[in-house]
Design a protein that fits this description.
- The chain is of the alpha/beta class and about 160 residues long.
- The protein has five helices and seven strands.
- The chain has one domain: 3-Layer(aba) Sandwich (Glutaredoxin).
- It has a seven-stranded mixed beta sheet with strand order 2-1-5-4-3-6-7.
- It is globular.
Length: about 160
């Protein structure tokens, strides 16, 4: 009986340690999010060989909405980039945000919520929205933007030169 309790605890602790190690080695953290259709999307599902832009946002944040609009106006400049847009808000908010900005028509934009788990929110110690983090095509950390006015020209320059 005692082994039935201890074994799952040890596995759980091992997964936490493994995830923490992976997340701290300068790679894309092993996040999970719930998509608007209820399916789970993991960081490992992001296409290999493309730069990754992780955007932590809130659907009701004006700066996040502005960033989304600005990004969509220049989406052709970012056609070879994968975007993971993650929030902590309920999945219903995600669905409305996707509909409002017609994000489902963009195959390189993945939008979801981590809801109450808030792994990324804690990992990056997010206080202000939006947070934008760039990783290169190998998943290596390049730069983090934590300001309300994200300079898309600078982001694009970092994508192309790093």
């Amino acid at each position: 009986m005692k082994n039935r309790i201890i074994f799952p605890i040890l596995i759980f602790l091992g997964l936490i340690i493994h995830a923490g190690t992976y997340a701290q080695n300068g790679k894309v953290p092993p996040f999970r999010m719930i998509m608007s259709d209820g399916k789970i999307f993991k960081a490992e599902y992001l296409p290999i060989g493309k730069p990754i832009v992780l955007i932590y946002f809130s659907p009701d944040c004006e700066d996040c909405q502005k960033l989304t609009k600005d990004l969509l106006e220049r989406i052709n400049d970012f056609k070879n980039v994968s975007f993971a847009m993650v929030t902590y808000q309920p999945v219903e908010f995600v669905g409305r945000f996707i509909t409002k900005y017609n994000l489902s028509k963009h195959e390189n934009i993945y939008v979801g919520t981590e809801e109450k788990y808030q792994f990324l929110r804690n990992y990056y110690k997010i206080v202000h929205f939006p947070l934008v983090v760039l990783y290169n095509k190998n998943g290596d950390f390049i730069v983090k933007y934590n300001t309300k006015d994200i300079d898309l020209d600078n982001l694009l320059w970092n994508i192309k030169t790093r």
